[in-house]
Amino acid sequence: MSLLQCKISNGIALLTIQNPPANAMSSVLFADLVKHLDELEKNDDVRVLVVHGEGRFFSAGADIKEFTSFKGAEDAAAVARKGQLVFDRVENYSKPVIAAIHGAALGGGLEFAMSCHIRVVAENAKLGLPELNLGIIPGFAGTQRLPRYVGRDRALVMLTTSEPISGVEAGKIGLATIVVSEDSLLEEAKTLAAKIANKSKQSIEYVLQLLSSTRTSSYHEGVEEESKLFGEIFTTENAKEGISAFLEKRKPVFNK
Question: What's the alpha-carbon Rg for the chain, to the nearest Å?
């Protein structure tokens, strides 16, 4: 049975984590996620992905029961690397991935959410990396992604105290992209996804590519790549349509 259900409507793929009671990040869930990512990347009708959790949580962490099967450091490191590769795939995905977070995104759940491009968070949600409470550390790139959003010093406090923060606080420090009420969470995430889905697919792909490169490229390398891609996209039919629509004061109709 799949732990990740997918429904497609109006260019939006809604992925629902169904791994009760805590929607734990497990090896089976990772496999399901990769399968869906592969399939949805080939589907030209899908422009945006929205991920949320069924029940009380987005995801309250990794599947701790799987940890008991580790025979040593090599097993643990291999599982960590597997999770890192899956979340790298999400972060470098060619279509925007929006995490709609309610209840809790803790440990591996937050590490997954941080790999998504956008996080729409309920104001009463709890976000944190509590691994030190177990005498371990985050293994799915939590120590690397968290400082990107909140800065090194704040990340250090969150990691070493293991105390979660609220969705409101996450918004203040840059961990949450948008903060909304829990009642409107999924609707707000879908509304945002719909706005993105109306844009040119190629434009979105180029933006994601350029933003991804900011992590490894210098400013001068980045602007050089930007000018190159700007030149490429300027010759497309979608660019012609977008500019014509602007001048004619109408909504553009992009072909892909």
Answer: 19
Structure-block tokens of residue 207: 């933006």
- Write down the catalytic residue from 54, 66, 91, 111: 111
The verdict on whether omega for the bond into residue 252 sits within 30 degrees of 0, i.e. cis, is no
Structure tokens at 154: 């704040």
Tokens 């497609």 -> residue = 8
Is 111 a residue of the active site? yes
Q: What is the mean pLDDT of residues 181-206?
A: 95
pTM of the predicted model, to two decimals? 0.94
Q: Determine which helix (DSSP H) or strand (DSSP E) holds 6, and give its type and residue range.
A: strand 4-9
Task: Check residue 246 and give its pLDDT.
Answer: 92
Q: Could you give the CA distance from residue 136 to residue 115 in angstroms, rounded to a whole number?
A: 21
Residue type, 222: G
87-134 confidence digits (pLDDT tens): 999 999 999 999 999 999 999 999 999 999 999 999 999 999 999 999
For residue 47 the two structure tokens come to 């422009």
Please state, in angstroms and rounded to a whole number, the distance separating the CA atoms of residues 136 and 146: 17
Share in percent of the chain as helix, strand, coil (round to 5): 50, 15, 30
Q: Which two tokens stand for residue 16?
A: 């629902």
> Angle of helix 142-150 relative to helix 152-161, nearest 10 degrees?
130
Q: Which amino acid is at 87?
A: F
Q: Is 248 part of the annotated catalytic residue set?
A: no
Whether the CB-CB separation of 47 and 195 falls below 8 Å is answered with no
43 token code pair: 């589907």
Range from 40-54, 57-71, 100-114, 183-197 carrying the lowest mean pLDDT: 57-71
Which of these is catalytic: 41, 66, 123, 131?
131
Q: Which residues pair with 7 in a beta bridge?
A: 14
